[in-house]
Structure formats: C-alpha cells, structure tokens
Amino acid sequence: MVRKEKSKVLSERFDELYPGGHSKFREPFDVTPHKVFIKRASGSRIWDIDDNEYVQFNDAFGPSILGHAHPVLAKGLVDLIENSATIVGSNCLFGEDDILFAEAIIRDVPCAEAVKVQVTGSEAVQMAIRMARAYTGKSVVVRFSDHYHGWFDNVFGGLLNDDSEALPYQKEGDNLTDDHWTSGRFPGCIEESYVLPWNDFEKLEETFDKHHDQIAMIHFEAMVCNTLGLYPKPGFLEKIRALCDQYNVVMSIDEVITGYRLGLSGAQGFFGITPDIATFAKAIGGGIPVSCVVGKKKFFEPFDNGLKGPGTFNGFALGMRAAAVTLSILGQENGKCYEERQTVQDHITGGLLTIAEKYEIPLRITEAPGVFFTLFGIAGGKKPVYTVQEAIDGGWNPKLFIAFRKYMQNEGIIMLPGERWYLDIAHTMDDAEWVLEAAEISMKQLADDIRSGIFEPGIDS
To answer: Which domains does the chain have, with CATH numbers?
Structure first.
C-alpha cells in the first residue's frame, strides 16, 4: 500500500493554484484521487515525496527516451549551463551542437535532407503546415480522426462529418462526444482541414480525386500512438504516397511520438515509407523541449522566397545540446540500445499475456518497439488493431484498463492512460520482473471484479 499523506496535502494546494492542471484534457490523467509529487528520479525509477518507489512506463508522455538523470546527458547540460549560455539569440548566434544535431537526424531519418528547428511538437506541426502551404500554394490540410497533432485550433479535435454530400470538414463536437473538443476555439478553423476515417482507402482516394486542387498536405501518425496504437492497413501508407505524388500534395508524417522511439529511423523506417516532410519532438531532446521539421530540401526552398518561421527559443543552446547528446547516445553501435530495450519489452508483453490467460481475462496487445497497448476485453494476444470500431466490436472495455492501472500503481507501476505503455533504454529485466509481479496481483483483483459483475461488457460500461 503506497503512502500518500504529503502528496494529498500538496494536491489540494496544487488544484487551488493551477485550475485545469498543467495539461488539460477532458479525462484526468491521475489514476488516484491525489497527484504524485516526485522527489527524485534515476533511470526507470522515481521516488515521490512520501518515499514510495515506482517503475515508470509513462516516459513523460514520450520525451524521456533515455530514462531519468542519464549521466552523459546530465553532464552535457551542466557543462553548458556552467560554461556557456542556455540561449544565445534566435538565428543570431550559434553553437557546434546545431551542426551535430542536424547531421545526426539527417543520417538517421529517411526523408531528412534539411532541418527547421522549433521548441514543441505543436509548433513543429504548425511550421510544417505553413511550409506545405507555401510550397504548393494550396491551403487545406487532410488529417484523420483519432490522430493527435497538438493543441492549436486548426488541428485540435473535430469529428467525422457524416454528411456524404458535404465537404469533409470536421464536424464540431462537444465535451461529451469529442475527447479533444474545447471551448474558445475560433470557428473559422474548421475549414482549414478535412478529417477522414483512418484506414478508409475509398474515402481517401475520393477526397483526393475531388479536392486535390485545395489540398496542400496530408499529416498523420503512421502508428496512431495517441489512440490504441492503431496500425495502418497493408498498403494504406503506400496509397497516401501515391496520391500525394499524383496530385502535388505534401506527405507529412507526425513523428512527434514515433521519432527515435521506434528506432533511429522512426516510423518511416519501421513501416518502410518515406514522406516528403516529418515533424519530430519529444524523444529527440531527451527531456528538454526541442522539436523540428525535417524533409526533402525542395520543401525548404520557400524560406528563400518569403516564408517565415521566427521564434526566440528556436535553436536555443540548451535544447540543441540536449538533442545532440541524446541522438549521439541513441546512435551508439548503430542503435544497439534499441535491441536491449526490445528484450525487456518482449519479456513484459509475453508475461502479461500469460497472466491474463491464467485469470481468463481477454487481452490484446498491439505494439511497436518502445510502445505497446494493453486492450482488455479483446482476445487475440499480440496482434495489430486497425480502427477503434474494430476494437469496440471485439469487446474492448476501457474500464478494465482503468481499474488495472489503478491496481498497478498501488503496486509501484506507473502507466499512461489510454492503455499505453512507453519503454525507454533505462528499463531493465529487474523492472520487467517487478511489472509481472505487480500484474499477478492486479489481474487477480481484476478477475475478481469481473466475476462480481461490476463491469458491464463493451465500451459504454
């Protein structure tokens, strides 16, 4: 049983000081009534102010690819802070880290020939949109439902339009029907993008055939890490590539999560598809905010003809040091650290399935290197899921995961909401054993709950 006295007191004060918290979505991220306040962290472990020790699998929603307090990264950052300047002026003064970072990402990422640096993933997406519009002279962005591209009005939220005769602009939802709906959004932003169903070949081709003269770019997660780890159906990414080539549309992959998480070449290498441009953030900074757009050089030519991309912290020295050091660590021995991480991931996922089978709990795991999703209620073991509707039809019950996550945190395992687990290169086989010991206790509790009848079947339980 975790101790929580100090965290409960701080939680009350935090809620008074920060309405909505630091990052506000419809559903709270906390799995317990109190927040967890961290006192220190090292590698895969964290300790809270009540002296509870945890193994974390949230990686701060993606940036902590090295784990916490990695000694080489920490040394590089401290050296810069003590001996130089953390920021030396946007596009006025520069550092060698600027070169080291760009050379590394161009070496690793298939589409990368040039780089434009930003600070956050949301900003990188906006820069990519502006670049595509400048290059093509067109304005509309095609995106997919259930994908996430940041909090700016023109890409945040929006439901599928069920009027087959209308333009496929997003349909305005509300706080009950759309997880990413928000009040305060400018109404005109709805006409900036078409929202299509993921993995729908027919709708994709129809939209490009009818509206290609309006479409500047298509931007998407190749693996939908923001929703159940949905995979692209075989041939779907290739169809996007072909349509973009046919109609002069910029193909842009959102690698904010997958970049340097799935491997050195990201989702592009994992799925074997090369876009025109791509957005990166999270893992590339190892925990310090830095993001970028990379792509073929021709898509950067508008910067010589009026395209602007200013920003005080673009290319700030601390971020560039973090990115240069992080990519250097990940690239050692051609990414050997990813192989070692996969051994840990395989042990965890295999063990979870074995325990679930023991307690007769249907469990589907969909995964890629460094990320996996535990979908309770669906049988099938390790197998991709392609759409949310497929998960629902298969019996997915998110209430089971919410209960499981709560039980696991009580046993010292911190996980992400949304069925998601992130692994970093600091995770060890000892961590994996702790997970499976906790899962044994937690799934037994979950099985007892299921037998008691407190969970109705289906997503609406």
So the answer is: 5-69+336-452 (3.90.1150.10), 71-333 (3.40.640.10)
